Amino acid sequence: MPSRVIAIDGPAGAGKSTTARAVAEQLGMCHLDSGALYRALTLADLDAEDELSGQQIVGLARSLPVGLRLTELGFLPEVAGVDVSNEVRSPRVTARVSEVSAIPEVRDWVNQALREAATLHPNGVVVDGRDIGTVVFPEASLKVFLTAAPEERARRRLLQEGKPIDPANVAEILEEQEVRDAADSSRSVAPLAAAADAIVIDTSAMTFEAQVNRIAQEARKAFS
Ligand code: CDP
């Protein structure tokens, strides 16, 4: 494990990825988005002609390959050498990713890939996901569990996607979030959970800047 790891976990739409990226930037570290790897694997699975077992999905991940490549912009998800940063955010991937990420062989493969990726950046990584502080990096210097009220998370997701914040859109996002949070929290392997030693931050009433500064401040304390 690299000397510095900050783990940020939390439910869908809590702002983990954007927060992790900003914290990494402030501290000279690199953002590592575990969800992007699950999404890239899901994309590869969706594009396969047959229904694949966990072992076959891992086989596909190795042969294509699927992975995260460290660039000047940070880690980019790739499938067969192609940057799939945009494609992994598509609704068809979002609708299926919780199912693929509940497969134990898939999780083992992703965890290994994340641990390897984390050694690549000299200043360490800010990793976001669902089980980063509990399973992937239990010895992380700082663990944060980021959460917010469901309506606020839905509102932020719409803002991020540049869509109007009207009742119909909010209801649609709320439903998608609820389904995914329920699946992620109830699965038997590595469910979404706060580590016992995580700092829980409810960002419902916090500005983005305040939440980033709070985590960076905790990190400086943890690293000193
Ligand atoms: O950005 P958003 O919160 O919508 O999700 P994400 O971080 O891109 O993760 C997408 C999905 O991957 C989650 O809903 C989980 O099913 C799965 N995931 C996981 O199981 N464990 C992780 N460490 C990260 C993501």
List the helices and strands and how they pair.
Blueprint: E1 5-9, H1 16-27, E2 30-33, H2 34-47, H3 54-63, E3 66-71, E4 74-79, E5 82-83, H4 91-101, H5 104-118, E6 125-129, H6 132-136, E7 142-147, H7 150-161, H8 167-186, E8 199-202, H9 208-223
Parallel strand pairs: 1-6, 1-7, 2-6, 7-8
Antiparallel strand pairs: 3-4, 4-5
Helix pairs in contact: 1-9, 2-4, 3-5, 7-8
This protein binds cytidine-5'-diphosphate.
Cytidine-5'-diphosphate binds near residues 13, 17 and 98.
Order of helices and strands: EHEHHEEEHHEHEHHEH
Percent range for β-strand residues: 15-25%
| Total beta strand runs | 8
Output the structural class.
alpha/beta
* Small molecules bound in the structure, each named once: cytidine-5'-diphosphate
Largest sheet: number of strands, sense, barrel closure: 5 strands, parallel
- Oligomeric description of these chains: single chain
Instruction: Label the overall shape.
Output: globular
Low-confidence stretches: none
Side-by-side strand order of the widest sheet:
2-6-1-7-8
Share of helix among residues? 40-55%
Euclidean distance between termini CA atoms = 18 Å
Name the average pLDDT: 95
The number of helical runs is 9
Radius of gyration, in Å, reads: 17 Å
